[in-house]
Amino acid sequence: MVKRFGYFPLSLLALCQSVSCMGEAAPVFPVGLGPVMDNTANYPEATDRYEYPEEVNIVTGTASLPWVHGRGYVHGSIERVWEAMREPEVLVDRRNVDEWAVEYDIDDTYSHSFRIHNIAHEAIDVEFYLEWRQDVIDGSPAAPGIVASRSSLSESTLFLTTVEVSTTLIAIDDSTTAIEIVQVVDAISTDELVLRTAVGDWFDDMTAWIAGEEMVAF
Question: Which residues have a Cβ under 8 Å from the Cβ of 144 and sit 6 or more positions away?
């Protein structure tokens, strides 16, 4: 399956201090699904209209490699948000990737796993593969409370040597989900602005897809 347009994500203490643990023990992440690093972003503050506004707060830095942290809320059930997290058109970086193909069920250790072959038409074609693994870490597949996802390069390329992404979905109520994302990227053309833009695009695509709206064309 190849399409022509698409984007591609905590600290356990932060999870407990925010919305997930409610006084209970921190969740245990299965091997391969743990956070890339501590998430330093704050959740959006409540407004007069919304206790959980549909926004994402983003912070960036470059301590060794460029990184981006984000925390936000989506107005959708965790089941619906998890659907979006398995939709290649939401995950692929449509601003920079022209084509992609998907291979599903690459790792039966997890509930969902897939590999996305990304192609960008530059002066020369740039190709890379991102592998995604996702599973419930609290609740059940039918009624998840927390869902964890990790993504990484299948192998380094000349232009892209490191991509590590962790995303955590946390159910707040039947129509609200908290999202925590951490990305670390080492690429020839990546800096803090690029990563901030990528996470903003991903969040916009996510919320548009959940709402049944058209995603922005690049």
Answer: 78, 79, 82, 136, 138, 169, 171
Name which of 157, 169, 190, 198 is nearest 33 in CA terms. 169
CA distances from 81 to 27, 73, 191, 210 (A): 20, 10, 28, 7
Q: Is the CB of residue 13 less than 8 Å from the CB of residue 27?
A: no
74, containing H or E segment: strand 67-74
pLDDT in tens, the chain (218 residues): 322 222 223 333 345 444 444 445 567 888 899 999 999 999 999 999 999 999 999 999 998 899 999 999 999 999 999 999 999 999 999 999 999 999 999 999 999 999 999 999 988 898 999 999 999 999 999 999 999 999 999 999 988 999 999 999 999 999 999 999 999 999 887 889 999 999 999 999 999 999 999 999 88
Helices marked H in 72-218 — which ranges?
78-84, 88-91, 192-211
What's at 202, amino acid-wise?
A: W
Pairwise CA distance, residues 215 & 207, whole Å: 9
Rg (the chain; Cα; Å):
16
